[in-house]
């Protein structure tokens, strides 16, 4: 592409007409108030507004839980209930009422039905009890009792997970932290936030933005997910390329162990090299080692300049080169580098109302979203322009458009965040969350297309900036023959190419018996030893993470 053509595309940031956004939620932007396009969030029944009592939402839990489609992953496994666990009885329920009161010990069938099933309606337990503690001390008393009685429990946050990690397998007692939603403190000099584990991610983001900071984590499910659950799954999200994983931004935790011990690691220091840094054990442990009740997290300042470009590339090699060029040219202002293939775009345009292509003149093979955030609008814009101009001259970009305002930015993100929503409208969808070297990132997508042919539609999208691929395979209905062609091939291919079978969703129940594809036997044994030390009765989130944990520990 010549300089003249590239300059024409960039001149004035090519105007792109988008429909008027739906005035569904009034939010604050860096430039003031605006009406933001609706963005899809899975499991929205837990969504709350700042200042609204969580309890009133939970009363309607059963009524608002409505999922129309099903998603599928690993083959169904017949998991036998651990005979070492006790059965819940009337005395247990009476004891919990003395701690929590009548209102927060839930036996209502509608609300239990909602809490027993994941948002995709793939996994369903048979718990008879939902507990809603309001403090760490109440969580401690609950776990102390459950441990002494050998009652299995499942910690639950917003229940937005995709691998069945937050719902019971059998009759485990559900402990949901929705009522533990207090912001404890904010250090406005250093940007250190301390809050309870049940805080909704979007509520934290809104609070921080009003104070001049942002959360280092941003997810499509932010209106429903809880920060404690984010930590337990080590959620990645859209800002990973800029701010890294939660292992780097979490400064401290308060965790309640299986025996009720409250482990106070709630430090707010940037540096503390005294002994083992135990908080990292609980980040990504999926509630199997303890329940996160308080969090200390380092939050970056809210930057006043944001630019978002929606770009088209001819092939995946161009996408790879564009990523390298973006890192070199944009450096510290690069905040997101999102990838989706032509099939992902076609899926969204076909199944989501009101979504239009930012590049309507043609359907390209690959699309990239590049976001920059900084403190100097003129400097950042000039830097982005130079990057785009050079990339177009080198033929890495075929076409592109830069958002002119927050409404256009929202419409661009709507496409990327709407892929999951669109996929479940096809019928059955098999979802895989893989971490791969960038040079192998798209290989498994092409392999699965060749392997499945016309039997399934395969789409690939994700966080190219950190090597996280979301592989979705869609068919009109669930088919065990199709699943047999997918698994274990997907896991074997990922392992062969030195990848991970779980980039950010965790293992949960879906991949608990697949851990050996990413971890050595010695590593798994050490994990089991740690689990046995912290939870000797194995009551915390059983049957997850490592499926044969009971056998390993005994």
Automatic annotation (TrEMBL):
GO terms for molecular function: (R)-2-hydroxyglutarate dehydrogenase activity; FAD binding. Its cofactor is FAD. It catalyses: (R)-2-hydroxyglutarate + A = 2-oxoglutarate + AH2. Signal peptide: none annotated. It comes from the Eukaryota. Keywords: FAD, Flavoprotein, Oxidoreductase. PROSITE patterns: FAD_PCMH (PS51387). The keyword Oxidoreductase applies. One of its GO terms (cellular component) is mitochondrion. It comes from Musa balbisiana (Banana). The keyword Acetylation does not apply. Residues 123-302 form the FAD-binding PCMH-type domain. This is Probable D-2-hydroxyglutarate dehydrogenase, mitochondrial. Catalyzes the oxidation of D-2-hydroxyglutarate to alpha-ketoglutarate. Belongs to the FAD-binding oxidoreductase/transferase type 4 family. Its EC number is 1.1.99.39. Pfam families: FAD-oxidase_C (PF02913), FAD_binding_4 (PF01565).
């Amino acid at each position: 592409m010549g300089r003249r053509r590239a300059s024409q595309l960039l001149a004035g940031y090519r105007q792109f007409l988008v429909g008027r956004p739906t005035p569904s939620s009034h939010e604050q932007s860096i430039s003031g108030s605006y009406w933001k396009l609706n963005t899809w969030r899975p499991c929205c029944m837990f969504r709350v507004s700042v200042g609204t009592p969580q309890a009133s939402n939970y009363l309607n839990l059963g009524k608002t839980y409505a999922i129309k489609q099903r998603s599928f992953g690993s083959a169904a496994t017949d998991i036998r209930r651990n005979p070492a666990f006790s059965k819940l009885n009337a005395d247990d329920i009476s004891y919990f009422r003395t701690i929590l009161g009548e209102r927060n010990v839930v036996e209502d069938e509608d609300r239990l039905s909602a809490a027993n099933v994941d948002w995709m309606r793939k996994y369903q337990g048979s718990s008879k009890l939902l507990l809603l503690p309001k403090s760490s001390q109440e969580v401690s008393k609950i776990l102390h009792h459950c441990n002494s009685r050998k009652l299995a429990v499942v910690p639950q946050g917003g229940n937005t997970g995709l691998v069945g990690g937050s719902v019971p397998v059998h009759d485990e007692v559900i402990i949901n932290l929705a009522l533990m939603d207090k912001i404890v403190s904010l250090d406005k000099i250093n940007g250190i936030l301390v809050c309870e584990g049940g805080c909704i991610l979007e509520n934290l983001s809104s609070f921080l933005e009003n104070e001049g900071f942002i959360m280092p984590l941003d997810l499509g499910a932010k209106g429903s997910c809880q920060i404690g659950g984010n930590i337990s799954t080590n959620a990645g999200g859209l800002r990973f390329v800029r701010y890294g994983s939660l292992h780097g931004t979490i400064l401290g935790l308060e965790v309640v162990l299986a025996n009720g011990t409250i482990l106070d690691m709630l430090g707010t220091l940037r540096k503390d090299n005294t002994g083992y840094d135990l908080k990292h054990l609980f980040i990504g442990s999926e509630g199997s080692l303890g329940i996160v009740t308080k969090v200390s997290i380092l939050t970056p300042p809210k930057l006043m300049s944001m630019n978002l470009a929606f770009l088209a590339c001819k092939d995946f090699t161009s996408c790879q080169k564009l990523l390298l060029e973006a890192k070199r040219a944009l450096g510290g202002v690069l905040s997101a580098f999102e990838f989706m293939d032509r099939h992902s775009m076609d899926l969204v345009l076909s199944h989501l109302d009101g979504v239009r292509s930012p590049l309507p003149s043609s359907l390209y093979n690959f699309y990239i979203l590049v976001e920059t955030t900084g403190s100097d609008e003129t400097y950042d814009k000039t830097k982005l322009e130079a990057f785009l101009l050079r990339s177009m001259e080198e033929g890495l970009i075929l076409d592109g458009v830069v958002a002119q305002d927050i409404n256009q930015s929202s419409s661009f993100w709507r496409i990327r965040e709407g892929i999951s929503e669109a996929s479940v409208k096809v019928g059955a969808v098999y979802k895989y969350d893989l971490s791969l070297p960038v040079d192998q990132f798209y290989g498994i997508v092409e392999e699965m297309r060749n392997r499945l042919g016309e039997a399934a539609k395969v789409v690939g999208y994700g966080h190219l900036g950190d090597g996280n691929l979301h592989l979705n395979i869609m068919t009109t209905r669930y088919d065990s023959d199709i699943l047999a062609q997918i698994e274990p091939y997907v896991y074997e291919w990922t392992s062969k190419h030195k990848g991970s079978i779980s980039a950010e969703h965790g293992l949960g129940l879906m991949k608990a018996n697949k851990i050996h594809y990413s971890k050595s036997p010695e590593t798994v044994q050490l994990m089991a030893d740690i689990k046995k030390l912290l939870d000797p009765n194995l009551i915390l989130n059983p049957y997850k993470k490592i499926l044969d944990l009971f056998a390993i520990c005994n």
